[in-house]
Automatic annotation (TrEMBL):
GO terms for cellular component: ATP-binding cassette (ABC) transporter complex. It comes from the Bacteria. It is a multi-pass membrane protein. This is Putative permease. It holds the Pfam family LptF_LptG. Its main location: membrane. Keywords: Cell membrane, Membrane, Transmembrane, Transmembrane helix. The keyword NADP does not apply. The keyword Transmembrane applies. It is found in: Cell membrane. One of its GO terms (biological process) is lipopolysaccharide transport. The chain crosses the membrane at residues 20-38, 72-91, 112-131, 285-303, 315-336, 342-361.
């Protein structure tokens, strides 16, 4: 069979693709609908207590809640969809009929891979470019009507580099007023301190414009020290409060190019608390490949007709799904708190399940 003929979709391919994508959409509608009902039941009191309007609940929250969680658990929906419809085909002896006509399991996987590719592309595009801006609206709603106390309003003991030879320090910073206290800024020439500015407070205005109040500047010229004092001075610093006041959900609101740029800039400034952003960035790429890995596992498990029928296959699928979620959670936790590489943390589930996929693929019926 030539490569061109292999790429053409036969009637069987279209049949399986239709079943795959149809079951995938059915799984999304079913599970997300249940999730929405449970979420409404859990949060209805908070909606009413905080006077959330029906329009805000529907359009600001749930209209963005649905695509976010759909994309987040898309690989698992793929897995369950493959097991469900393939088990049904095997139970109806369709898989046996296909294999009996000389079509090997490798050829049978073609429409599965095409379907996984379609889902993976849409998942990557939506997760990297479309859903992050929608997350900003959803998270703003949650911080306003669901958990107002969960909004980050400041931090303390903040120190980082804003240039090759400049280091700044905030004793504490209040996001509600955009004001920092016990501020200092040190300039170096190689390892030699050339000037040090200290101030009682510093307030951010806009467009990198800052106002420093009650300040003192000490300049060092050899053995000579020059001291300048003042009550207020305007300056431009290439930083904004969001550069150093980081919330747990900030990475969800950034597109992939923004995440990449942010991670690079934070590394240059010497920030060490960017693991969550790195995990988010790598996970978006890893999720693309997880669709293919879980499709192979699902097809290999459910293509064989077993005495337990669909129930046994679905049970195995749910167990593996829980294991996949567990690996994702544990590896992410180790990356944030245990020093594991965010890249490895994002890819560990795929690495482990790739081994499972290869083993099951070799044992699949032919």
């Amino acid at each position: 069979m030539s490569n061109i003929e292999f790429l053409k979709l036969k009637r069987l391919d279209r049949y399986i693709i239709k079943k795959f994508l149809g079951t995938y959409i059915f799984m999304i509608v079913l599970i997300i609908s249940i999730a929405v009902v449970f979420d409404i039941n859990e949060k209805i009191d908070k909606f009413m207590t905080n006077n959330a309007s029906l329009q805000a609940i529907v359009f600001d929250y749930y209209l963005n809640f649905i695509p976010y969680y759909t994309n987040l658990f898309s690989p698992l929906f793929v897995f369950l969809a493959v097991i469900f419809f393939t088990s049904k085909m095997a139970n109806n002896s369709e898989i046996i009929a296909i294999l009996s006509n000389g079509i090997g399991f490798k050829r049978l996987m073609k429409p599965y891979m095409v379907s996984a590719l379609v889902i993976a592309v849409f998942s990557f595009v939506f997760g990297s470019y479309i859903i992050p801006p929608a997350n900003a609206t959803r998270i703003e709603f949650e911080q306003t009507y669901v958990n107002p106390r969960g909004k980050v309003t400041g931090d303390h003991d903040i120190q980082f580099r804003i240039g090759p030879q400049t280091i700044v320090y905030f004793g504490n910073f209040d996001m509600t007023t955009n004001t920092g206290y016990n501020f200092s800024m040190d300039h170096f020439d190689s390892l030699q301190l050339t000037s040090r500015l200290t101030a009682q407070s510093i307030r951010y205005d806009s467009a990198y414009h800052w106002t420093i109040s009650n300040y003192q500047i000490r300049r060092f010229e050899g053995l000579k020290e020059i001291i300048t004092k003042g009550t207020s001075i305007d300056t431009t610093l290439q930083i904004v409060p969001n550069d150093f006041i980081i919330a747990k959900t900030d990475q969800q609101m950034m597109t992939s190019p923004q995440l990449r740029s942010y991670i690079q800039s934070q590394k240059e400034r010497g920030f060490g608390n960017i693991q969550a952003f790195q995990i988010e960035y790598h996970s978006r790429i890893a999720s693309v490949f997880s669709a293919f890995i879980l499709t192979i596992i699902g097809a290999a498990i459910s293509a064989r007709k077993v005495k337990g029928g669909m129930g046994l296959n679905i049970g195995i699928g749910l167990a593996l799904s829980m294991a996949y979620i567990l690996f994702m959670t544990v590896s992410s936790t180790f990356a944030v708190k245990g020093g594991m590489s965010p890249f490895i943390a994002a890819w560990i589930p795929n690495i482990i399940f790739t081994g499972i996929a290869l083993y099951l693929y070799k044992r699949a019926p032919n």
